[in-house]
Design goal:
Layout (H helix, E strand, L loop, with lengths): L1 H16 L3 H22 L5 H11 L10 E3 L1 H4 L12 E4 L2 E4 L4 H4 L14 H6 L16 H17 L1 E6 L12 H12 L13 H6 L1
Parallel strand pairs: 1-4
Antiparallel strand pairs: 2-3, 3-4
Length: about 210
């Protein structure tokens, strides 16, 4: 039975490949050896998920976020990721968030690195990378841009820790609403009503004396 199967296999190999059984099996063995050699040299290409996981394992644990309170906009620039010893910060609508856990995106060399150390409200709303839009000024934005900015703000609020705010540059508000009202208030205090002079009519006796 075995000899019959071997004879049938040899005939099939010769018929379909045109090779002798010895040559056919030699080619198969060499092909397998070549495959294992190439696989051993280059190995399998890791998937993006595996690469991301290995990067996370290599990264040192991040220190807890440090609350900065209210700081100047120029001070925020010191936290743009150029100093690895400092946290990586950025702001939206004047609120500062610690984005150190996403250094691959906002750190040096990342796709959003130019947003770090700044209030990028306008740039995020417009999805712009222009230097002129790297500001917290959101005046003149349309409704769709404001909605986009709100989505970004919700994302940051849910994912990152708020560590401070940017000092407002607005002038302090006084009690007097306007210069006109102040002038009116001053006039009302300084001016005194003049005494009214009452003229008494001359009597008939005085007229006769004249």
């Amino acid at each position: 039975m075995a000899l019959e199967l071997w004879g049938t296999l040899k005939e099939a190999i010769t018929t379909y490949t045109g090779l002798s059984p010895t040559t056919f099996f030699t080619v198969v063995v060499l092909s397998l050896a070549f495959y294992h050699m190439v696989f051993g040299l280059f190995g399998s290409t890791p998937s993006p998920h595996q690469r991301h996981r290995s990067m996370e394992e290599e990264m040192e644990p991040l220190p807890p976020p440090v609350q900065l309170g209210e700081i100047e906009e120029d001070e925020l620039k010191l936290y743009d990721g150029t100093d690895p010893k400092k946290p990586l910060l950025m702001a939206i609508k004047g609120q500062i968030y610690d984005v150190s856990q996403s250094r691959m995106f906002y750190g040096p060399g990342g796709p959003y690195a130019l947003f770090a150390g700044k209030d990028a409200s306008r740039a995020l709303a417009k999805m712009s990378f222009e230097d002129s839009d790297l500001t917290g000024d959101i005046s003149g934005l349309g409704p769709f841009e404001l909605d986009a900015l709100q989505d970004w703000e919700y994302k940051f609020m849910s994912k990152y820790v708020k560590v401070g705010t940017i000092k407002s540059k607005d002038a302090p508000v006084t009690d007097v609403s306007s210069p006109t009202e102040a002038a009116e208030a001053t006039d009302g205090v300084s001016e005194k009503p003049e005494a009214e002079t009452v003229e008494t009519p001359a009597t008939d006796a005085e007229n006769k004396d004249e």
